TrEMBL record:
InterPro entries: Cu_amine_oxidase-like_N (IPR012854), Mao_N_sf (IPR036582). It comes from Paenibacillus rhizosphaerae. SUPFAM superfamilies: Copper amine oxidase, domain N (SSF55383). This is Copper amine oxidase-like N-terminal domain-containing protein. Gene3D superfamilies: Copper amine oxidase-like, N-terminal domain (3.30.457.10). It holds the Pfam family Cu_amine_oxidN1. Residues 41-144 form the Copper amine oxidase-like N-terminal domain. It comes from the Bacteria.
């Protein structure tokens, strides 16, 4: 007689194996992100979506943050074996089934070799290991792990902003000598992380993410005088000197204002008319970029 827990797990895997996103069967490989228990997982090979199933390189499974997970690759049999919490999983390249213990389970998409890398169906593996798996279609993010799903299911955008701020920066050849680090404000367009502004005491810089780097496009020296800046509705301070190409932006922005002296972060929204609304305060010792649940109300659908 089969173990009831095994039957339940197999049923869950069979029912939940496919992740159909808005009726679409394809997604840009580079747009899909994977979050494990330790946050966003990087890989030199991008995950991709095939007919509703996300496939990831097997090295991502190692990085999920699951303690005591062991994994081995048998190049002769072209199969990967994963053990975790007394569960043994075997996935072979091409056959449309996986093995949990000694039970075969159908796969919506088999493991594949792409560009010399073994790609495996992440939902099947995550759920077979007893971990919840959640797919966020809007941000093209798959989240694996019990504590991860609880704490990060709605923070894929936040994690991406944290990652973007840590990218290597490419500066303009000229520089403006102004600013200070006691108070730093980061501005992001609502719902996005591909460009951002950083304001220090009397300086503001604008960066765009390009090919894995934050490229400085524009910088300016400012005063504390309140004015209206054309093309920068969220920024009310007078610009007295600038270099590079000044951007022209529209829409609402979120801001994170970090007071280093008191280790506090104040965050909020600036609407497209330039009106700022503070929404909360966070412990600066735990990071500058935090979730802003109200942000979704300002996103255009």
């Amino acid at each position: 007689m089969k173990n009831p827990k095994t039957l339940t797990l197999i049923a869950t895997v069979v029912l939940g194996i496919s992740m159909v996103v808005g009726g679409q069967n394809h997604a840009s490989a580079s747009s899909i992100k994977v979050i494990g228990k330790n946050g966003l997982i990087s890989s030199d090979v991008a995950p991709y979506l095939k007919k509703g199933t996300v496939l990831v390189p097997i090295n991502i499974i190692r990085k999920l943050g699951l303690s005591n997970l062991n994994m081995s690759w048998d190049n002769t049999r072209k199969q990967v074996r994963i053990s975790y919490r007394k569960v043994m999983i075997t996935v072979k390249v091409n056959p449309k089934y996986g093995i949990i213990g000694d039970e075969g389970t159908p796969l919506a998409q088999p493991a594949q070799i792409k560009n010399g890398r073994v790609m495996v169906p992440v939902r099947f593996i995550g759920e077979a290991l007893g971990e919840p798996v959640e797919w966020d279609a809007k941000t093209q993010t798959i989240i694996v792990g019990s504590s991860t799903v609880n704490s990060h299911a709605k923070s894929a955008l936040t994690l991406e902003r944290i990652r973007v701020l840590s990218l290597p920066r490419v500066s303009l050849k000229e520089q403006i000598h102004a600013g200070g680090l006691m108070t730093v404000v980061c501005y992001f367009p609502v719902g996005r992380a591909d460009e951002y502004f950083v304001k220090e005491e009397r300086r503001i810089d604008y960066y765009k993410v390009q090919q894995g780097r934050a490229v400085q496009i524009w910088a300016a020296k400012t005063t504390n005088d309140i004015v209206e800046n054309k093309g920068l509705p969220f920024f009310p301070y007078k610009i007295v000197q600038e270099i590079g190409e000044r951007p022209s932006v529209k829409g609402s922005f979120v801001y994170y204002k970090n007071f280093g002296a008191i280790a506090a972060v104040f965050y909020g929204i600036i609407n497209d008319q330039g009106k700022a609304k503070q929404l909360g305060e966070a412990d600066g010792n735990k990071g500058v970029i935090v979730d802003i649940p109200e942000e979704k109300n300002y996103m255009k659908h």
